[in-house]
Amino acid sequence: MREPSVRRYSGRSVEEWKAARRERLLAAALELFGTEGYPATSVERLCSKAKVSTRHFYHEFQNKEAVLLAVHAQVIELTVRTTGDALRRTADKPVRERIVAAVDGYLRTIMTDLRRARISFVEVVGTSPAVEEQRIAFRELLIASVKDLGDTAVARGEIKRKDFRFLGLAFFGAVNTVVYDWMLTDPRPPEQKVQKALRELAVQLMTS
């Protein structure tokens, strides 16, 4: 039995056109939410930036909040993947080396693109119950990584048992405050200096 043919427009299928349209909207959201802010960005502004009609916007997203959730999810995916890769690469290394690798991976993801930092630390905070739920879920993923790292180090006899959830909350709270302050400082200090200080804080919290 022959497979039904797929209609193509300018060499693309309908699904490919839809995927490209969605990616343009997400790229526009990263740029506008990450520079001008979520409240200041209208659906019409997003559509204009992405070169997408408002009719097609509502084919892809229910509302502006749904776009924020989607672009924040992209940041979460990248951050979790980068941090997880760092922990896997250093699975057999001493705990200090693992902490440094994980913190470096996390901070590079956030700090190399100020738009991602602003969305993660400013625009999603308290925006709506749905966005807050996603933000807290992301934090819990990071806390789980801290607990796993700590439990592994305890089992190896490298460090003593601690309340790793509390330490994770303290560290990521510090990251939020420090990176937010760094973003607003003019002139902005070198990011390497901030990353070094946060690496040292993470090592001290986990191993002292």
From TrEMBL:
The keyword Signal does not apply. Residues 19-79 form the HTH tetR-type domain. It comes from the Bacteria. Gene3D superfamilies: Homeodomain-like (1.10.10.60), Tetracycline Repressor, domain 2 (1.10.357.10). Keywords: DNA-binding, Membrane, Transmembrane, Transmembrane helix. Residues 42-61 bind DNA. SUPFAM superfamilies: Homeodomain-like, Tetracyclin repressor-like, C-terminal domain. This is TetR family transcriptional regulator. It comes from Kribbella antiqua.
